[in-house]
Design brief:
This protein is mainly α. The protein has one domain. The chain is 80% helix and 0% strand. It has 5 helices and no strands. Helix 1 (12-27) crosses helix 5 (109-146), helix 2 runs antiparallel to helix 3 and helix 3 (60-86) runs antiparallel to helix 4 (90-105).
Length: 148
């Protein structure tokens, strides 16, 4: 899967569909990503969004300046992703091109907000999938214990 070049210009339903697809890819055994690694990335995006929303007050010029500063800082995530991918963590082989592509699409407050929501959805879907897998594994273990 590759993110379409204009996903952040699309409807929220399409963005959520893309987030679900990415979370499923990250949950596959061959590209397994630790939930804490994903949450760390999400936390950084959330901090940037919160800081932008807090300090975007003022006239139009100062708001644009703050947005541009925040977008420039957001681009540093790409470096982090490349570093992790270079360390050989399989999940980053999937995550890096997708997230880097989306970061390149963040051009204004609207696309930044959609990127933030995309990241929220990826973490939510991934967390749900991991909990479902854990529950299924527990059921299998309980079944095996009772049948011994």
């Amino acid at each position: 899967m590759t993110v379409s070049n204009n996903l952040l210009e699309k409807s929220i339903d399409e963005i959520l569909r893309g987030a679900k697809e990415l979370s499923e890819m990250l949950g596959e055994e061959k590209s397994k990503l630790n939930i804490n690694q994903l949450k760390r990335l999400h936390s950084y995006v959330t901090r940037l969004w919160t800081r932008y929303k807090t300090y975007r007050i003022g006239d139009e010029e100062s708001r644009k300046k703050k947005l541009n500063e925040t977008i420039e800082e957001l681009k540093f995530i790409k470096t982090f992703l490349i570093y992790q991918k270079g360390r050989g963590i399989d999940g980053y082989k999937v995550l890096e091109p997708e997230i880097s592509n989306l970061i390149d699409q963040v051009k204004n407050e609207g696309t930044f907000e959609k990127f933030k929501k995309y990241m929220d959805a990826v973490v939510a879907y991934y967390t749900l999938k991991e909990k479902e897998k854990a529950k299924e594994n527990n059921r299998k273990n309980d079944f095996n214990k009772t049948n011994k």
